[in-house]
Amino acid sequence: MYYEAAISGTGRTICVRSEEPLNPGERIWVGWKGERTKCYVIGPSFQKDSFTVKERDGRSFLTEKHVEIAKWISRRFGSPIGMVFDLFFPPGIDDYVTEKVISQSPFLGFEEMLLSDFVKDKGEKVLEEMLKKGLVKIEKSFYIKEPKPRLKKRVFLKASIPELVRTPLTLKQKMVVEYLQFNGGVLLEDLLRDLEVSRSVIESLREKGIIEVLHQDVPPKKRSNRTTFKEELSDVNLFFGPAGSGKTEALLQLAGEYSRRGTVLFLVPEVSILTHLLSRLKGLFPQMRVGIYHSYLSKSRKNLEWYRAVEGKIDILLGTRSAVFVPVKNFSLIIVDEEHDESFYQYSPPSYDAVEVAREISRVFEVPLVMSSATPALKTYVEAKEGKIKVFTFVRKHADVSIEVVDMRKEERVGSFARKTLDRMEETLKEGRRVLVYVRRKGYWGRVQCETCGHVLKCEDCDVSLVFHLDSRSLKCHQCGREYGFEEECPVCGGKLSGKGFGTEKIERELQRYFPERRVMRIDREVVEDVMEVEDYINRLISGEIDILVGTRMVTKSFDVPEIGLVCVLDVDSLIFLPDFSASLRVFQLIVQVFGRASRKGTGRAILQTYNPDEEVIMRAIKEDVEGFYERELERRKSLGYPPYKHLIHIALKSKDPNQGKRLLTRLRNSLDGEEVLGPAEHWMFKLKGFYRHHLVVKTDKVEETLSKVEKYSKVLGLDPLILVDPPSLEIPD
After folding, report:
1. DSSP code for 581
2. Once rounded to an integer, what is the mean pLDDT over residues 386-407?
3. In sequence order, what E strands does 420-496 have?
4. Could you say which of 3.40.50.620, 3.30.1330.10, 3.40.1440.60, 3.30.460.40 is the CATH number of the domain covering 1-89?
5. How confident is the model at residue 323 (pLDDT cuts 50, 70, 90)?
6. Rounded Cα–Cα distance for residues 423 and 102 (Å)
């Protein structure tokens, strides 16, 4: 029998031959180019020039529907089919394989034996002979040992809120406390597994009197005060409404209800959001089996969660974009929270849009899809307006947000701040509330420039300005990470160097000087290596250990901190004028999302410092005028032929020669007869990590047909470009 198979890690397919039937999506191994090579079965083949299957799993973790989805992703995004199949499996899965020798004859005296025991007892030659004669066969058993819960040990929160505020706790200890605040007592083993904390963390909390561990046979009672989502869902749905309007609560209720019918896939854009959602779900539905899947899990935990989901042992699977590929067979509902977030897009090969993949899974498996956002993707907005998507509108009930725009051209300035901004901060702090400050970049100065000749210090490997960091008194490239020593004299003319602009480090230092009695901290990639640490900063903000928190984009993500009384946005002007078709939309979504942190329960304030107060994107964002801004943005995109009215294929090429990329892409453009092509041109970040980058853009109504032409002529010309379909922006990954 002959089958088409995709070679792992490539876009190539081959024909394979097997004496036994192979399953769609099954992993097999063949001898290819002299090496043992992993492949995935796609389906029957009519070719005869084939490779012999040397080894197989003997079962498939994927169904025909998953194979259909993999093929669609490859066509839709131009991603290599073998790399797409790889996404369905976690790294290291073969570390959990047990091989067994299965008897095919009643006269051999055994039914099955571990392969290692058989070889040790009878030898490899005997095994080979028995395999040839069909007396035995080898099967793989994938088994990941699940921890057995000690049914009588349950963990309860013992300390009161005032005690918790006074007691210093580590990040892991705070994660446990938050988890228990939503749960009336959980199995110790469940807690250890869900949060990936050690028993020493539990013991330390017990010694501090924060928790108690009891031997209790009776499980905690289910909460009886929960509501249900009574509206009927359509095939594709949008939960639309501002921050603080109850969208997340409705999503949690939906997840609980649909989990009775099968597995619910619940996608969020960032890892830092997951722990909080996990705690809330466990609190609402104590008996529910909730899994978690993201890139920061340990290898063993990731494989365990994957295996449990595949075997149908999880009711709700919480995860970031990679979780969309966990091959669940019994989907009942798919949820995508903050569906507009560009974190759902995978820029590096194999590229894909997790929201689009979720839509396809919903269609193929015939289960409802629910997307949620205060600022939906334009495609979602258009489909909702045209009635193709059922819209559930949520209205903010309790919060009253007062928003001020500060014109930095006219206001009295104190350092990087307007005097008015500092006054609002002081008023908020006196009220006993917290302040959140958004800054676009990390570092101290945004660039270093000569006062005499105007020379700007740039990275030798990248076409970007170096950023000064006061803590290390060094210049850093935020693209390649290269670090330089800081000299006060200009390398060109010997003049004096001075700093321009500001980053989180400078803002933190200024606020510490303005408010010496207050606890000011910053959060960016310089101080936070693990994104899970974001949760710790948020907890400290809630408890009052931090009065003012300064941060980059990571502080704009979905979290609920009612204690925040003021949100300040200091620097979005430069983002508005980026040479990117999506610049205005991204700024609008950013401002609305940041100000959403001030709209949680009660009266909140927000303030935006800008040199461009009359820009339409700013005026509409502060009014949360989603409809008004989107209509203008759609009108502009329709006239220019940009998504969602046409598909956009972004093609980029990097080379060591500053002129080669343009020459090669020009040849590709000339081959694409009949296509609407912009470019090629230098990318706005032309040099990065020693390579020069050129790009071009193709606009098309027939994305798969055009992609096929791009791939065909790229091969003819010997090019290996980066191809991105409908990316959120025209950025090029490293």
Report:
1. T
2. 85
3. 434-438, 447-450, 467-469, 474-476, 483-485
4. 3.40.1440.60
5. very high
6. 78
Q: How far is residue 138's CA from residue 395's CA, in Å, rounded to a whole number?
A: 60
Q: Which of 610, 529, 528 is nearest to 576 (CA)?
A: 610
Amino acid at 635: E
**3-state SS record for 276-337:** HHHHHHHHHCCCCCEEEECCCCCHHHHHHHHHHHHCCCCCEEEECHHHHHCCCCCEEEEEEE
Q: What proportion of the chain, given as a percentage, has pLDDT over 70? A: 93
Domain boundaries, the chain: 1-89, 152-212, 234-391, 400-442+500-629, 645-723
List, as residue ranges, the binding site for Zn(2+). Answer: 450, 453, 459, 462, 477, 480, 490, 493
- Give the bridge partners for 604, in sequence order: 401
Answer yes or no: are the C-beta atoms of 502 and 478 closer than 8 Å. Answer: no
**DSSP calls for 243-267:** TTSSHHHHHHHHHHHHTTTSEEEEE
Task: Round to whole Å and give the CA distance between 3 and 41.
Answer: 7
Print burial letters for 192-229: b (CB count within 10 Å at least 16), e (below 16). Answer: bbbbbbeeebbebbeeeebbebeeeeeebeeeeeeeeb
Question: Which residue from 480, 479, 477 is spatially nearest to 468, judged by alpha carbons?
Answer: 477
Model confidence, pTM:
0.86
Beta bridge partners of 450: 497
For 583, the token pair is 């610049």
Computed over every residue of the chain, the mean pLDDT equals 88
- CB 393, CB 272: distance < 8 Å: no
Residue among 197, 189, 220 nearest 283 (CA): 220
How many other C-beta atoms can be found within 10 angstroms of the C-beta atom of residue 275? 20
Find the angle CA(108)-CA(111)-CA(115) to the nearest 5 degrees.
Answer: 95
Residues 445, 448, 454, CA angle at the centre, nearest 5°?
Answer: 140
Place of tokens 């580590």: 170
Query: What's the rounded Cα separation, in Å, for the pair 310 and 329?
Result: 7
* CATH of 645-723 given 3.30.70.600, 3.40.50.300, 1.10.10.10, 3.30.460.10: 3.30.70.600
Give 400-442+500-629's CATH code, choosing from 3.30.70.20, 3.40.1080.10, 3.30.70.980, 3.40.50.300. Answer: 3.40.50.300
Angle between helix 271-284 and helix 188-195 axes, rounded to 10 deg: 160
Least confident of 132-136, 191-195, 386-390: 191-195
Which tens digit of pLDDT belongs to each residue from 450-472?
A: 889 988 888 888 878 888 888 78
Residue type at position 720: D
Provide CB contacts within 8 A for 149, sequence distance 6+: 187, 188, 189, 190
| Domains 234-391 and 645-723 are alike in CATH topology | no
Burial class (CB in 10 A: 0-12, 13-18, 19+), 691: middle
CA atoms within 13 A on the CB side of 688: 17
CB atoms closer than 10 angstroms to residue 599: 25
Tell me the per-residue pLDDT of 672-695, one tens digit each, with 9 for 90 and over.
Answer: 998 999 999 999 889 888 999 999
CA distance 172 to 195: 8
Q: What share of the chain is helix, strand, coil (3-state, %, to 5)?
A: 35, 25, 40
SS3 358: helix
Q: Are 39 and 22 in contact (CB under 8 A)?
A: no
**Binding site per annotation, positions:** 450, 453, 459, 462, 477, 480, 490, 493
Strand partners, 696: 651
Q: What's 234-391's CATH class?
A: alpha beta
List beta partners, residue 333. 264
Average pLDDT over residues 310-328: 95
